[in-house]
Amino acid sequence: MKSTLMLTLASERDWLTKLWLKPGNSDLSPSVDGLFMFIMWVCIISFVALMVPMCYWAWRWRRKPGVAPIRTPNHNTFLEVSWVVGPLIVVTFIFFWGFYGYINSQVAKGNAINIDVTGYKWNWDVLYPNGAGSGQTVYLDDLLVTKPGETQKTGQRGNAPVKVIVVPEGVPVKFQLKSKDVMHSFYIPDMRLKMDLFPNRYTSMTFTPQNSDPALSAAGSIGKKPGEKGRDHYIFCAEYCGTSHSEMAAILRVLPMDEYMKTVEEWGNMADKLSLVDVGKYVHAQRCATCHSVDGSKGTGPSWKGFYLQPVPLSVDTGEKVDFSTEAGWNTYILESINYPNAKIHAGYAAGQMPSFMGQLKERELAGVVAYFRELAGKATDEDRKTPEPKQ
Ligand code: HEC
Ligand SMILES: [Cu+2]
């Protein structure tokens, strides 16, 4: 009965609903929108029911010359019981409706696809079940489609491009959320979902994306090449997390299931399609850029620019002789730093900051990182820059 009522309330989409809410795109939207509008109507009705009699009575019983003031009654059991019990019934109803929606956004269906999201200052990392990360970045508002088939460049909003996160239409997905540093909040207004991310703690959200038709895309067709499929939605960070908080956005793209599979597979095999230097750049952008700059500036970790083939000052003398003047010596040092970051510590940097990436990078990605180090030192070879032949 309750769900029929919610559906009716939400599917009406009267002018008042449209004023507050853009059309929802997940299985949760009818319940959330219905509850929102229910509370809205409770507010409107109680406002009118209280304010109109109040104004009328203030006028009706106003002080008149020659009329003695009437003593105010100080007790009315019927009234007192009804303004306690009446609202209690309404808020209890609201509680269970909200709880029902909350549980639906928390308990994932058995066949849900698990997507790992890590927030950090100031971007989102995604990890798909096949190990792929997001393989596409776009500028917000880069392209706006005016009429079908016609695109108009509108310039860029924001300094940094944001990642595209794809999800399949009609299949439940579960985002598993955590943070690397401070609190963030993963907010997808079109899916009616928002959940905080914490360091050292997992939170999650689950929903079934609906409708991959790009025509009604709430976020426009951001950075899409003509013919690219899917419907785009904004993702924001909704917890003030520092300097570039306002640029901590992403795009959620709902694709038909087969397109989704193709895209995630392609992103997983990214390393086989790019030159070694580009693989290194890609790995850096996806997983290392928060701590390692490539312009020589000091971050949480040392910059990757300018150190290759230079001696690295180590804070503890392990007694081991490292020959930093040869490529072999440096490449060994890079690989060791990725697998065992605490084996040797670059002087001036803290131990225990860099997580080990052991087993997380493929061989070609490791070679790519080394090639990128060479590139940043102006020592990349033709082999490093060569795009591999497509495999048949
Ligand atoms: C959370 C921050 C952080 C992330 C993310 C990170 N690193 Fe580091 N990295 C550090 C710190 C701090 C040091 C210096 C201390 C040390 O030697 O462990 C370092 C040192 C290194 C060094 C040694 C360089 C030198 O000049 O001594 C290499 C190579 C390296 N990291 C590679 C990587 C790669 C590759 C990735 C991404 C796959 C990565 N790091 C991700 C923090 C990070
Ligand atoms: Cu944030």
Produce the secondary structure layout:
Blueprint: H1 2-12, H2 15-20, H3 29-60, H4 77-106, E1 113-120, E2 123-127, E3 137-140, E4 143-147, E5 150-153, E6 157-168, E7 173-179, E8 184-188, E9 193-197, E10 203-207, E11 231-237, E12 249-255, H5 257-268, H6 276-288, H7 327-339, H8 363-376, H9 382-385
Parallel strand pairs: 1-7, 6-12
Antiparallel strand pairs: 1-2, 3-6, 4-5, 7-10, 8-9, 8-11, 11-12
Helix pairs in contact: 1-3, 3-4, 6-8
Characteristic terms for this protein:
392 residues; Cytochrome Bc1 Complex, Chain D, domain 2; 3 domains; 12 strands; binds copper (II) ion
Describe this structure in words.
The chain is α+β, with helices and mostly antiparallel strands and 392 residues long. The chain has 3 domains: 2-49 and 80-106, no CATH class; 113-264, Cupredoxins -  blue copper proteins (Immunoglobulin-like, Sandwich); 271-385, Cytochrome Bc1 Complex, Chain D, domain 2 (Orthogonal Bundle). The protein is built from 9 helices and 12 strands. The strands form 3 sheets. A 6-stranded mixed beta sheet has the order 3-6-12-11-8-9. A hairpin with a 4-residue loop joins strand 8 (184-188) and strand 9. The longest helix is centred in the first third of the chain and has 32 residues, at 29-60. The protein starts with a helix and ends in a 7-residue tail after the last helix. 25% of the residues are buried. The mean pLDDT is 84. The structure holds heme C and copper (II) ion (CU). The site of heme C has 25 residues, from helix 6 and helix 7.
